[in-house]
Amino acid sequence: GYGRLDVVAITHGHLDHVGGIWPVLESFDVGSLWLGSSWDDRSVKRAADRGIPIVLDPPEAITSSVGSDNERSLVLPIHWGPFSALLTGDVGVKGEGAITDQLEGTVAVLKVAHHGSKTSSTSTLLDQLRPKIALISASGAYGLPHPDVIERYRRRGIQVLRTDTMGTIQLQSSETGFDAWSHQAGVGWRRVPLQN
Fold first, then answer.
1. What does the pLDDT look like over 37-78, one tens digit per residue?
2. Over the stretch 185-196, which tens digit does the pLDDT of each residue have?
3. How far apart are CA 141 and CA 168, in angstroms?
4. CB-based contacts of 70, cutoff 8 Å, min separation 6
5. Three-state SS for 158?
């Protein structure tokens, strides 16, 4: 298993984004905790109690200063060899509009913002980033992911991977690209065929 995490990032302070982070901060050797303009005090206290350095608005991240906590989510571009991804937290139309000027190039994987809410995944963002894979973390509750959002991705030929239908999704990057795996109770791990 893993005993050290170089970085733990909190996109914003809503419970569905920080609830599982507390035991992580207590159980792992964490190099630093990254925060944007919205966080929860319990995570900050746990990190401070353990002597974990706290970094506000890390330079590697993209943030928006407009709107709600969701709109100001910490957005993280990831580049690892040939693999690239953008983790979007819960940004919506305002947040996406504020960060698009800060984004460069395309990404292989886009973690779909706000669990696939219809207030995210604008055509402008999708046309700029041109992801091959859209990863949606949602339980299926509250009508998420929204069918209009799914359709935006499908119209562009972007493969959609959803936790509500596939279970846990894991991406593994290598020097030649990346693979996707899903895990469901009673089924176990299965490789997910990726479109080219």
1. 888 899 999 999 999 999 999 989 988 777 788 888 999 999
2. 999 999 999 986
3. 16
4. 12, 14, 89, 90, 91, 92, 95, 114
5. coil
Beta strand ranges found along the chain (DSSP E): 4-10, 29-35, 54-56, 76-80, 83-87, 109-111, 133-136, 159-162, 168-174, 177-184, 188-192
Among the listed residues 102, 97, 171, 108, the one whose alpha carbon sits nearest the alpha carbon of residue 137: 171
DSSP string over 25-36:
HHHSEEEEEEE-
Tokens at 162, concatenated: 């959803």
Residues 6+ apart with CB under 8 A from 175: 81, 82
Strand 4-10 to strand 76-80: parallel, antiparallel, or no bridges (unpaired)? unpaired
Provide the 10 A C-beta neighbour count for residue 27. 10
* Coil, helix or strand at residue 54: strand
Question: Distance from CA of residue 126 to its chain's centroid?
Answer: 15
- The pLDDT tens digits for 109-167 are 999 999 999 999 999 999 999 999 999 999 988 899 999 999 999 999 999 999 999 99
- Max CA separation in the chain (angstroms): 48
